[in-house]
Structure formats: structure tokens, C-alpha cells
């Protein structure tokens, strides 16, 4: 993106409150359709969708140059099984059974990719029926397993991606996935990890999305406070089980065509169906626009753990540490790792602001290159949002009860460095 175009946007200096993150309604359930890349800038996306937390759909023109769109699809728009087997046949992939409920999700198993493709072909031949059930390949880290493959390029609108920036840095995980499934496969009602944003691009096939704006899920809980597995189930009409269901808005419904990208806002619960044999690429991501929502989510998760094991508080000396361990096992992160997450994001931006970008880094697909592409004003915006969340984390009583001596630099020193870098950049 042209830096001058980006810099002229004053959005990055507005002090958006956290209340602006929750869009509780859309006029008539309307979702904007973005037709042309050349007339839609990152600043447009930031102003109209990231900050107000609104969904939108990008046309197939945004993905037409992807290798997966060219090679993974047959001439008639179906999955190209032969090509996929040739490239990935020896991989082992996670597969969920859509016909079985296990707690509030579907049970998963690991299968050889070639066995899954064999099942899929037979499933189609048998009229979309199988004694094995409806199997859905989900959450496959294909890009991490096959980094040399020409699959896709992340659109600039989604390039401020703190989750993958951090997990790439620690080389532990990532939140880039491929989904493949037959007509009828589906994902139960949920919100994405850490209440992150997500984007989902259909390589082939069609999906139906049912979206509930952040906050609407409260009306969909049963009398025990549990969310439904299937938001279309007739049981939701039973007021003795779901006492507030009649207060909920109808879902925002999207039918996503081949090549299109759907942007799912932070904290929006959703349920998704494959209307045809479908392949999609999905990312979860967090950035300065929704990191405060992630921090609120972590506080809520810890509070829930503390309520569950409150009876053990007095006899257990390290009760607060145990709560952190349980939270990390459930969510994938605890407060100390959240601090390290903020530190990595902040230090990358401070480095670019203080030292610029060398030629070698700018030529590579690196976080610092992405920061430079979005511009220095965006780096300052990121740092200002990090300061707010880090200040709240540092003052949090549960955080202060942990052994923080292993954190380097200490929170106070990092905050001082962040504020100094912001002041210097704005001179």
C-alpha cells in the first residue's frame, strides 16, 4: 500500500474506546461486499470494518492470482483431488466427525491425507452418505508443513497479524489453517480463539454463515449459562431451557461463493455449513484494534477458572499459579505468556521506528517488512494500543501475584521504553 495514502488517514490517532468494538446490530442484517481491490485501501478497511468491528465480504477478484485457486480446482469448480494427492498425499491431517457431538464440538482423529481423499470420493459416489459419518478436514497447518508451496498470499488488509507474528517468533504454533470437506460438513456454534478476528477464503465451493454480533450470544445461553451446540436446533425455542432466546436478534446470514473472502469480526459467534464440496483457507488474528478484547477474554477465562476451583483456594499454597496453568491448558495462553506476546509485538515495532528497515529484511516476508508496508503511523498506533493493555496487565492483581522475576525486561521498563519510542516517533 502507498505509505502516503496510509499516512493521510487520521484514524490511527483517534482514541477509540473499547465500547466501539462491539457492533450489536447491522441495518437489516446487511453485509458490505467489496468488489474491487484497486478502489479499496487498507485505511478503508481499518476505518469501516476493523475499528467498528463489522463483517464484510471480499469478491473473488482478491484471490484470483492465488496458486491454490489455479491448481486445487478442476475446470468445473470441484476440488482437484489428483493434484492435491500429488502434492500432499503423504501428509497426516486432523479430521472431525460432523455427525458426533463430543462436549460442545466434534471429535477429531488424525488420518493420512490420501485416506481422507479416498473417503471423500467414496462419500460423493454414495450420495453423500457413509457409515463413517460426515468427516471434515479442519485446522490443518498446511502452510507450516509445506512452506515452499505456492498456495496463497495474505491480503494486505489482514497483514497486521499479531497472533501469527508472535507464534512464528517462538516457533511453537500458528493460526493459519486449511479446511476441506464435503457438502453437508459443518462447524458448530462458536467464537474464534482469544476472541480473535478471522478471515476465510473459499478456494472452491460455497459456505453458509450464521453470524451473531458480539454480545448477542448472551441471549443464546441455556439456564446453566452454556451456549448451544447447534444454534438452529428446535430446542432453543424451549423457554424452560433457553429462557432469553426470544430476546436475541436473528443471525446475519452470508452465503459465500467460490473465491470470496469473509471477514469475521472479533467476538462474533458463528456457525458455518459447506453447501458444496468446499476447500477454504482461514486465519485467526489479533492486532491493535482488538487486543483489548483479547485481554478482557483472558480475564474472564481466569475468573471462570477461579470460580470453578475456589473451594481449593485455602489449602493450596500456589492456588494462583494453578489457576494460570488450568487457564493455559484451556485457552492456550496464561498471563505471563500474554506479557511476552505484547513484548514481542512491541519490540518489533520499536525496532522499526528506531532503526528503520534494512534491505535484507524488506525483501523478505517478515513481520518487520509488514510493519514497514503499513507505515510508521501504524507502528505508533500499535504501540499506543499495547501501552494501554500492558498498563492494565501490570496493574492486575492476579498478574502481580505471579513470580515476575523471569520476565525480561520487567513490565515497568518495557512500558517506559514503549512510551519513549512513541514520544520520539511523534516529534
From TrEMBL:
GO terms for biological process: positive regulation of translational termination. GO terms for cellular component: cytoplasm; nucleus. Coiled coil: none annotated. Belongs to the JMJD6 family. Pfam families: Cupin_8. Keywords: Iron, Metal-binding, Oxidoreductase. This is 2-oxoglutarate and iron-dependent oxygenase JMJD4. Its cofactor is Fe(2+). SUPFAM superfamilies: Clavaminate synthase-like.
